[in-house]
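Hi R.,

Here's the chain you asked about this morning:
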Amino acid sequence: ASRAKRHTGVCRSAQTLGRTDHRQMTVVVRFSTKMFDVSRERPNPINPIAGESLLIWLKDSLSPTYPVTEPDPEDWGWYSHIEWAGTNYMLGSSASEPEDGEREWLLQIVRSKSLKERLLGRGNATTADPCVMHIVRLLSAEQGFHSVQVESAA
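And here is the predicted structure, written out as tokens:
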């Protein structure tokens, strides 16, 4: 079967957060699915990029144990915030154009860092982060999601 075109966009917010001495690490999760009907998403008034559906699915799947905010639009897609064990993370979501009805989805996970963590170059989200691991397990367990891949981006 043909796969949706791979898209490479990483949100600008994730690219510029924490630029003192050390770069902010973003964990990027990619997968393909036909599960979401993006025509039912609210229009993104900044840039017509799909992504809200995944964040709503995550909110429904993780709340109330891990509160997730309502998705908001951004020029690179959509974002929400999640609180995990006293730490806040930004979840960024966007989707490629469909190919054979399937889209590639990109979920970015960025951990908020304290000033001390920024100065010391600590506190980056990694693939071993408990929040990241939980979200990846959740995505991998969903039978409608295919080819779940995890990578880190600076």
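One quick note: Strands lie at 26-33, 72-74, 77-84, 87-95, 103-111, 145-153.

Cheers,
M.
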